[in-house]
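Q: What would this chain look like folded?
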Amino acid sequence: MSTYRLTLEYEGTRYRGWQEQKNARTVAGELRRVLEEVVGGRVELGGAGRTDAGVHALEQVAHLRTAAPLARPGELAAEVNERLPADIHLLAVTAAAERFHARHHATLRSYLYQVSRRRTALGKRFVWWVRRPLDAHAMAAAAALLAGRHDFAAFCERAEEQTSTLVVVERAEVAESGDLVLVRIAASHFLWKMVRRLVGALVAAGAS
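A: My prediction, written as structure tokens:
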């Protein structure tokens, strides 16, 4: 088997998340379909993170395993992008160590939430519009409390099904950019629905 590292971006509005599902359209499902067409056989595909329905990605990392080495891995992205839907784009393909695994070898995952202070015609799919006034400084103060190793069971869906609800948050930052309040959270991993609930709590802390 030959292993490759894929980096891709996608606009997740039309998909039921990253992970392949039998009766739903997903990002991984579309990517696998096209990769197998181009490679001409079955492949193994795995992502560093399982983004939920409607979630977008700027730099999702995945691993690709093929039965035989690719003749020109550097040209694979162009061939694949010709066949992918317009809202999924393969940024890069590079050879990787045989045992490279996108999820197991990931050391950090990062989310960016864009909270808008105003209604927007063009950015609707990419922001959460909050009508109440927001105090970004209060949000930043609350975000600072998230850093470190904590039990996030209260922010997780179906916490009882998790092996552990302990997560190491490397950083949680809040910044302002025009009408946007940007929330960035980076951690070892994330529990199901953890990030959106944390952002909701930060917005509540900043609402006046």
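Helices lie at 27-39, 73-83, 136-144, 194-206.
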